[in-house]
Amino acid sequence: MLLDCLIPRSLSPETENEGVTLLHNLLMQLHLDRKVARGLGWRGFLPSNKGNFSWSTRLANSDLVYGIVFMGEEHDDQAIASSFDLYAFPVGDELKTQMPESMQGLYKKDNHIQKIRTLSEHFQELQDFKIGSMGLVFRLDKKGLNLSFHTHKRDARFIGREMRPARALMPLFSALIQSFKTSLNTTPALGVLKSGNLPSVNDFFIEAEFGLPVFEDDEEMDAVYKLSAPPLSYIPDEVDLSDKPLIHVLCGFLGSGKTTFLQNWLNFLHTRERFTGVLQNEFGEIDLDTALIGDETCVEALNDGCICCSLADSLRPGILRLIQNTPADQLILETTGLANPDNVVHSLEELNDICKIGLVVSVADAPNLTEHPEYLNEKLRLAQLTRADVIVVSKADLVCDESIERLTQSLHDLNSKALIILSANGDANFAVLDHFFNHWIDKKYGMFTSRKHTPGADTMLLNNAGFSMRGNTSLFETCAVKFSEPLELERIEPIIRNSGKKVLRAKGIVDIVGKGCCEVQYTDGMLSISQARDDLQACDRWLTIIGKGLRPQTGSTTIRKSRCL
């Protein structure tokens, strides 16, 4: 039967919510196949079932958040008819100005986003945003389905063409038609009712019929303008059609909090069934950060020095292994704190046969940069910030509001195109990051800061080709100190400080007397020690130290010197 792929059982009209089941199963199918969903223009769905069942959703080709609210269901011995109200909430400031002041008042309330997300609870107080209705009628034998959409061509409350109800809602209806077409694997009969068949010349009515006619003796489809495709359908771009994963580049200076931020970002993505592979680059021999991510994520550890200097040797096979081992359609490359994103992006472009570049996300250490604003002028940190599409201001909870405001303004002055978000304990508003990413992919791909060509980046390619490039490289050293027995707490910091003339970073897993297995982090003179997770108990006890002018200590590995371009 036509509808078996969405409801693989006999219909139960007595429940009076089979239309909800049908629509919800369609959206969940798409949610679990993100490539298909993206190709159809869907950019996320959120169901809500407190009160009337509803969904809120975003689409690639619209600056509106759409709401679908189930209003009821009827049936006879032939078919089930479900009705839904349709809502449209402007997101962009320009569209908001096209609404009357009474509607703009919603956006002045702090909880307006939550009300939209839980539309099933608040649809009655948001009636001003209801601008259409939808009918879903399907045969009891599951051999036919009729999807219809009714609204007005114009609404005197709205200024501007984009907020005319028929135009505003058409992307949503087109996405639903195309989604049913894909799921049911059949092309619908599609048409718009003529003016003479409508109650008012201002009415707009369009319908799509799949399979056998729902209304056996109905002649409505004879009184329509036939259409070959729904208006304002989304046209997939090269990113939607590509079978290559997107790779986001996560950078930030040593100790800025990249791994903690990454852990929370992965939690956000995975709870939405958007499983993501990770490539981690350690500037040293011990891949502690790979262990810290945990065992729920497929992680490739790259330990051949800074990847911006050894990309060809380690990154390509690492990506290929991840593609083979995980179905993820996106990967996150966490670079060493010494990586220059200019070089990473420049080199990733040479891997376009196996992947596409996503966002460049740079983590900026708030306490560090507010205490030392001069760090913003350092060459490497400046490159990480000016090349970023997104700047994450980490550890914002450790800095006063006034200092955060000054820092974000300074970052904006450095990179006016970047999205700047605040992070506390590695957590951030990932929904904002997600929206930014979707907007960037749909409307600005290839136009962002990370895509600019920097002639200086060619030095890495010349260097790897065997040419000697001077004046553009920095020499960093790394070593690992191994501990065979527990240490007194007060010994940790002296060991780190006495490791060299300039210690930039230290991290590791150490047994501490009275505390047991602990995670040690040292950044820019600040030491933090926390209880290690249970799954880290099996890790070797090491401290990896990065800096300049390092000195060998008892139990340390050979000091490695590596250049970072």
TrEMBL record:
Any one cellular-component term (Gene Ontology): cytoplasm
Signal peptide: none
Protein name per UniProt: CobW/P47K family protein
Database matches in Pfam families: cobW, CobW_C
Task of the protein: Zinc chaperone that directly transfers zinc cofactor to target proteins, thereby activating them. Zinc is transferred from the CXCC motif in the GTPase domain to the zinc binding site in target proteins in a process requiring GTP hydrolysis.
Residue span(s) of domain CobW/HypB/UreG nucleotide-binding: 247-420
Domain CobW C-terminal: start-end pairs: 476-553
Natural source organism: Parasutterella excrementihominis YIT 11859
PANTHER family: COBW DOMAIN-CONTAINING PROTEIN (PTHR13748:SF62), COBW-RELATED (PTHR13748)
Superkingdom of origin: Bacteria
